[in-house]
Each structure stands twice: as structure tokens, then as C-alpha cells.
Specification:
The complex is a heterodimer of chains A (297) and B (332). Chain A is built from nine helices and seven strands. Chain A has 297 residues and is α/β, with parallel strands linked by helices. In chain A, helix 5 links the parallel strand 2 and strand 3. Chain A starts with a helix and ends in an 11-residue tail after the last helix. The chains are: A alpha/beta (297), B alpha/beta (332).
């Protein structure tokens, strides 16, 4: 679908609002993941506000596309994006990780039925998306107009289950399946290439029978073109390797793996003292790193 | 005597009693379920004939997915298909599914509450010569502990067929425990089957029973043989088929315990965490009575014939009789 410059500006603003909500909910929760959600905010925004066939007023609409989130720990961005697109009130984001909340620490569809899958334990989201794509093809044939998307982290590619799913999708030439890998190069213990090297990541997916597209995870135009290209591939499943900056939007958090599983207020103190981390992050996001000086600009 | 109301196999105690593998009943049941509902799909991990899913796969190739030797993928792909309205049956050896893929079953099937049906073939030591690696004797424990899951261990091929048809119609994640070798056919097509209900297969001709034997799976046959011999020795017992381990028929168990005040449980599984544990959870809370447990005592299996292994691990007819006599002495 065509993406005008005007729409891109709008998406950028929405993504920034989503980042603000992520930080606000993490401050309230006092635990949770910061780097991944901030890094994936642009991709979530593009999908929920431009690509996905969905209806927040009728979440169980049968004709909807499916979005499977495999790395459930980045759910603050899922919840914030869903709230901003109208699934539930933005105010509810402040209940993240609290007792009785629909917004569980890792997503659970018994609590929040609007999501397609519960997740948290890594490595099995792609399999579920493959199952959905297979089922849709049984019902609607190879020319089905529905797409099954799966977002997964790069670190979770350490899990063997993913490679089982990749083989099966390649074997069955699932053109209705599009995976998006959050290639942010970090995981809890450090950089992916130190923990368990993933490179050559493009060659690996390609060898398993996938069409591979590499793109910046923060360039709306390029991302949109990547999705259009993936949708047009007829003989194979596609994967978009989206290069993202973990912690994107708050420069003190960016590219620092220590922010993987820490909320503002509990993070590393060499750049910002703990008690100022939330405040600084929100100030930076609200002014877009100094690019805007008032709320109205 | 055999419970006349249940129309059990009248030739049950003949030396040439008909034998059939329980897994075959699953294969026939899945085929029938597939004919009844086009949403039934089959997924298998390179054991299509071994688990008897081949009957379904040949009839409905467009609804059959060969996953390859990848049981984690098997479970999670099935969850995805169920999310789209399918009723997936997955099959492999019990050791690999629900063994290898337990976490995928917990998270993607049960936590997600998706109606995936897990058929675990080759359960128990009676797998025989393949040895301990392939003998699942922990599977009841690891499945019944997961919320939302149903656990069924049919006593013969006919009950397996009925159970397969029944679970295809429910929205619950379910585990169906199957064994490889031919075992005696205990029931008939006319035997009533109600999901979740226990049934009394053997009862005294007159008067109350002194001991209740609760059995699950093919070992029910050994329990019936024991009951017949005990009757000749003047010991009156009732034998219950507890094929539905979860949900468990609490009411029937309490009635049995109130009558007999002594219970023996019989299963081809570790004693820890299995059907006997489930029975004692019910009785300890509702009507405590002495219980003896027939099953594997914290050991792995090994190679041998099914008969040799059943005897070696103390699960044969004579072991059941001894347990009945022991629990009789413990009665207060």
C-alpha cells in the first residue's frame, strides 16, 4: 500500500507517542524490558497503522491478518501499539505487570483475548505462524489474500525450534507467511555474535528456502517496500531482516545490551542516575531529542 | 463377574482372546473423526504408520502435514492450526511427544487453550525390545499436571477408537496414551463410553467388594485376570476402568472407596505422579483409605519382551493379587 510523505510524518509521530507510552508503563511496572520495545516501535507502528488488515473494534473479525509475536518479552510495545490503535484505553497501559491486569508480564491470551498467541518462552512463535499459514492455505488455497506475520527476535534464533519451523515453511512454500526479525544484535548476556553467532543470517534463511530482504527497521518507506516485496513473492515464504537500534529514541539507552531486561529506574548508571532515568527518557521522547520545543510543534 | 451392563467381550478369559494394538483403535478413530468433521487435520513426526495415522493421511492427504523428526515444531504448528479453527491431532512416540516437546505443549497448546489432540504411541515398558529410551513411563505425570489438559489412557483398541472420536468433538487440549503391542480386546462396540467417566468392569456376584482395583490402560486386563482368581480364592473385589485420568471421576472413586475401604491402583507408569497419585489425591481429600500402588518404582525400562518386562517391574497378575492381599491386611 502506498505510503505518502504525509502518512510517514503521521507514523513517526505515532511511533514517538508509542515510545512515550512504553516508558510510562515500564516506570509504573518497575520491571520489564526496555531496549527491544523501543527498537521495535517503528515496525509495530507501521504494521498496526498501515499494513495489517485488522479491526480494533472487532478484534475477532474472521478475515483479519494474523500477527504472531514470538518474543513475548517485548510486549510493552505490543500493548502500547494496540492501545494507541484503539483496542483498549491508553490509560490501561499503566497496569502493565500488575496483579489482575490484562497486560501480563508476558502476553497471555486468556487475559487479553485480542492477541493471537500467548508468548514468552522463546523459539515457538514461528511454528505457530507456520501452522496458521498452513491452515489458511487448506481453507483458501495458495492464492489466499490473507497474510500471517511473525515478529521474532534475533537472539531467539538460538532456539532450534525456529529452524524446524523454517524448514517446514520452506518445504511447503508458504507464500502467505512473512517473518520479521528484529536484528538488534543484542541479547541478555551481550552481543549476539559473542553469545552465539547468527551470521551469515541472510544466507542461512535463504538456504532454508526463504526469500530474504534486509532493511532498516526505522525507515518507514523502506520497510513498507520490503513488506510489499515480500507479499509479491509467490513461490516462497519471506523474511525481513530489520536492522534496529535497541533502545531507539533515548540516546542514553541506545545500543546498550544492559537495557535489554531493565526498566527506567533500574538501569545502568554511567550515563543517567537511576532516579532520573524515567524523567530523562520521557523528556527526550517528548521533544524528539530536542527537535521539538513545544507540544504543539 | 464381568459387569453384564457393559456388554464386555464374552470371550475375555479364553486363552485365545482376540488381541489388537490400542494404537490401531486410534488410527481408526481418527479416520472416522476426519470423515465427520473437515476441520480435523493430522500432523506427524515421521512415524505415520507406527502411530497409525497413515489411515487418515491416505484418505485425506490435503489435511495431513508431515512435520519430519521435529516434535517441538509438531506441537507448536498444531497450535497455530488450531488458532485458525482446525482440530489438529499430532502423533509421535509418547517419549518424544509429550516428552521432548513438553514446554511447547504447555505454552502454545495449553496456556493458549488450543484444542490440539496429542496421541502418544508406544507408552509404557511394553514397547519391549527397543529399550528404556523409548519406553515412556512418565507421560501421565507430565501431562496431567498442565492446566486445561485432558488425559485419557484407553484400555483397548475399541475404547481408543471411541475416545479418539470423543476428543475430536471437544474444545480441550487432550493427551491420548497409546501402546504399541497387541493387547486383549476387553470391550465391544456396544460397551457404553462416556468421556470423563469411570466404569466398574468386574464386581462380586453377590455382596460387597473387599478391595477396589483401579486400573488404566492395557493393564486393566491383568487386573481382571487377578480379580477372577481372587474370587476363586474367596476374595471379593471390584475392578474399575479409569481411562479418563483427567478429568478424574471423583464421585465414582469415592463410592468405590466407601464400599471397599481399600484400594489398589494399576498402571504401566512411574508410581510417582501417575494415575495412582491422581487417585490418592482424590481419596486423601474425600475418603482416605489404604492404597497399594502397582507401577514402576522409580526405575527406567530396559529391553525384553513385553511380558518379561511387565513381570520384572512388578505389574503382572500375581503382583496385583499380592497387592490386594497386602491392602486387605492394612484395612482398619
Amino acid at each position: 500500500m502506498i505510503l505518502t510523505q504525509e502518512k510517514i510524518w503521521k507514523l513517526q509521530e505515532t511511533a514517538n507517542n508509542i515510545r512515550v507510552s512504553i516508558i510510562e508503563s515500564l516506570i509504573e511496572a518497575k520491571s520489564g524490558h526496555t531496549a527491544g520495545p523501543l527498537g521495535m516501535a517503528d515496525i509495530f507502528t507501521l504494521f498496526y497503522f498501515h499494513i495489517l488488515k485488522h479491526n480494533p473494534q472487532n478484534p475477532s473479525w474472521a478475515e483479519r491478518d494474523r500477527l504472531v509475536l514470538s518474543n513475548g518479552h517485548i510486549c510493552p510495545v505490543l500493548y502500547a501499539t494496540m492501545a494507541h490503535s484503539g483496542y483498549f484505553p491508553v490509560e490501561e497501559l499503566k497496569t502493565l505487570r500488575k496483579f489482575g491486569s490484562r497486560l501480563q508480564g508476558h502476553p497471555h491470551r486468556e487475559y487479553l483475548p485480542y492477541i493471537e498467541n500467548s508468548s514468552g518462552p522463546l523459539g515457538s512463535g514461528l511454528s505457530q505462524a507456520v501452522g496458521m499459514a498452513l491452515a489458511d492455505r487448506i481453507d483458501n488455497g495458495a492464492n489466499t489474500s490473507r497474510y500471517i506475520y511473525c515478529f521474532l527476535g534475533d537472539g531467539e534464533l538460538d532456539e532450534g525450534n525456529n529452524w524446524e519451523a523454517m524448514m517446514l515453511a520452506g518445504k511447503n512454500k508458504l507464500r502467505n507467511l512473512i517473518a520479521v526479525v528484529d536484528r538488534n544484535n543484542i541479547q541478555i548476556d551481550g552481543f549476539t555474535e559473542n553469545i552465539m553467532p547468527l551470521e551469515p543470517i541472510v544466507d542461512k534463511w535463504r538456504a532454508f528456502g526463504w526469500h530474504v530482504i534486509e532493511v532498516s527497521g526505522h525507515d518507514f518507506q523502506a520497510l513498507n517496500e520490503a513488506v510489499e516485496e515480500a507479499q509479491a513473492v509467490y513461490e516462497k515464504p519471506s523474511v525481513i531482516i530489520a536492522h534496529t537500534i535497541p533502545g531507539k529514541g533515548v540516546k542514553e539507552f541506545e545500543r546498550d545490551f544492559r537495557w535489554h531486561g531493565t526498566p527506567p529506574g533500574s538501569g545502568p548508571e554511567d550515563k543517567i542516575k537511576k532516579d532520573k532515568q524515567g524523567e530523562v527518557a520521557l523528556a527526550e521522547l517528548r521533544t524528539l531529542g530536542g527537535q521539538i520545543i513545544s507540544e504543539h510543534q | 463377574m464381568l459387569n453384564p451392563e457393559l456388554k464386555l467381550n464374552s470371550k475375555l478369559f479364553n486363552p485365545d482372546v482376540e488381541q489388537s494394538p490400542i494404537r490401531k483403535g486410534f488410527g481408526q478413530g481418527l479416520l472416522a473423526a476426519g470423515e465427520l468433521d473437515k476441520n480435523v487435520v493430522g500432523l506427524c513426526s515421521d512415524l505415520t504408520e507406527s502411530t497409525q495415522m497413515n489411515l487418515f493421511a491416505e484418505k485425506f492427504p490435503e489435511r495431513f502435514i508431515e512435520i519430519g523428526i521435529a516434535e517441538q515444531n509438531l506441537a507448536a504448528v498444531a497450535s497455530g492450526m488450531a488458532a485458525m479453527g482446525k482440530i489438529p491431532f499430532i502423533s509421535s512416540y509418547a517419549m518424544f511427544s509429550p516428552g521432548r516437546n513438553w514446554e511447547q505443549i504447555r505454552t502454545t497448546i495449553c496456556y493458549n487453550d488450543r484444542p490440539v489432540k496429542i496421541a502418544g504411541s508406544h507408552a509404557g515398558v511394553s514397547v519391549g525390545p527397543d529399550g528404556g529410551t523409548h519406553q515412556a513411563i512418565e507421560d501421565i505425570a507430565i501431562t496431567r499436571v498442565i492446566p486445561n489438559m485432558r488425559v485419557i489412557s484407553p484400555c483397548d483398541a475399541i475404547e481408543a477408537k471411541k475416545a479418539t472420536l470423543a476428543i475430536a468433538k471437544t474444545k480441550f487440549p487432550s493427551y491420548l496414551r497409546l501402546v504399541r503391542e497387541k493387547t486383549p480386546v476387553i470391550t465391544t462396540d456396544e460397551t457404553p463410553y462416556e468421556a470423563g467417566k469411570a466404569q466398574i468392569y468386574w464386581m462380586p456376584d453377590i455382596g460387597l467388594a473387599q478391595v477396589g482395583i483401579v486400573a488404566t490402560g492395557a493393564l486393566l486386563y491383568k487386573a481382571l485376570l487377578a480379580a477372577k482368581e481372587l474370587e476363586a480364592e474367596g476374595i471379593k473385589v471390584k475392578v474399575m476402568n479409569l481411562s479418563s485420568i483427567k478429568p478424574i471421576d471423583t464421585e465414582a472413586l469415592i463410592i468405590l472407596a466407601k464400599e471397599t475401604k481399600a484400594v489398589v491402583t494399576v498402571e504401566e507408569h512411574q508410581i510417582a505422579g501417575g494415575m495412582g497419585s491422581a487417585v490418592s489425591e482424590v481419596l486423601a481429600q474425600n475418603f482416605p483409605v489404604p492404597i497399594e500402588f502397582i507401577g514402576v518404582h522409580d526405575k527406567f525400562g530396559q529391553s525384553g519382551t513385553p511380558e518379561e518386562l511387565i513381570e520384572h517391574y512388578g505389574m503382572g497378575k500375581d503382583s496385583i493379587k499380592e497387592a490386594v492381599k497386602k491392602v486387605l491386611k492394612r484395612k482398619i
